[in-house]
Design a protein that fits this description.
Rossmann fold, 270 residues, alpha/beta
Length: 270
């Protein structure tokens, strides 16, 4: 193939995100805010939040790896038939899937024990990376959720996805084009606010996107608008921003430059 100018490549038009945060930070709320979401849900207690935010969201309950495989197979078949009604697939959450894998391996072994052997942990880590890749590679927007944990190395604190395996949290984060830490805090006016950290603060596993601010509000359609433009499927509308601002969210509306860049590149080629 040889060398090709970077500007001549077509950029992927699907967002692939990994978001981690503590319990109650708003991960399920973020997932339900997506446009036409297909939600793979491992934690049924999140159904109340999903129903409140998006009562029309389609939810696939995942209680086993067979449920997970069936969901993926169904999505692939819908896509192959050009009949996929979904814009974004949400996986809630990776940590619970790891626990499902652990339970299934122990049950299959028939052993009266609660801990895995080193070899069994290796199997789980391999399967987790395959699952993360399988969802990332879907030709859809992908939002993967997982709880956070504090990890210490030589007294240095790192808040990262809560996944067992020394390298797994970093490896999984590397599969996605952006990784954010979702948190909540009380602002100077005493209001509880939620934010997502993508860049700029040490001690948190994160990776930003060029079209997003280092700190964003947790609203998926706003990110899609910033990355792909206001006319993209699932992008926030002006009235959505107005509603957010009424609720105290000061947000840059930002339009993506990608479409203008593509037009310029095509004109240059002519």
């Amino acid at each position: 193939m040889g060398f090709v100018k970077a500007q001549e490549f077509e950029l992927e038009d699907k967002a692939k995100f990994l978001i981690h945060g503590n319990s109650g930070a708003g991960k399920s709320h973020l997932g339900a805010s997506a446009y036409k979401p297909a939600i793979g849900l491992c934690e049924k207690q999140a159904l109340r939040t999903i129903r409140m935010v998006n009562p029309n969201a389609d939810v696939w309950i995942i209680e086993s790896t067979e449920d997970l495989r069936s969901m993926l197979a169904t999505l692939h078949q819908m896509i192959a038939d050009a009949k996929c009604p979904y814009d974004t697939v949400v996986l809630d959450s990776l940590g619970e899937i790891q626990m499902i894998l652990k339970s299934e391996i122990l049950k299959k072994a028939g052993a009266q024990r609660e801990t895995l052997t080193q070899g069994e942990w290796g199997v789980i880590i391999d399967r987790m990376t395959n699952i993360a890749r399988a969802f990332r590679d879907l030709p859809m927007h992908v939002l993967t959720l997982v709880r956070s944990e504090e990890h210490y190395v030589d007294d240095s604190r790192l808040v990262r996805p809560s996944l067992s395996g020394r390298k797994l949290p970093n490896d999984v984060a590397g599969y996605f084009n952006a990784t954010g830490y979702l948190y909540k805090k009380v602002d100077v006016d005493g209001n509880l606010i939620h934010r997502v950290l993508f860049d700029g603060v040490d001690g948190f596993l994160s990776k930003g996107d060029p079209d997003l601010e280092p700190i964003e509000i947790p609203y998926w359609p706003a990110w899609i608008r910033k990355m792909y433009g206001s006319d993209s499927f699932g992008a926030a509308r002006d009235e959505d921003f107005t509603d957010l601002e009424k609720r105290g969210h000061r947000i840059l509306r930002g339009e993506s430059n990608k479409k203008e860049e593509k037009k310029e590149n095509k004109n240059d080629k002519k």
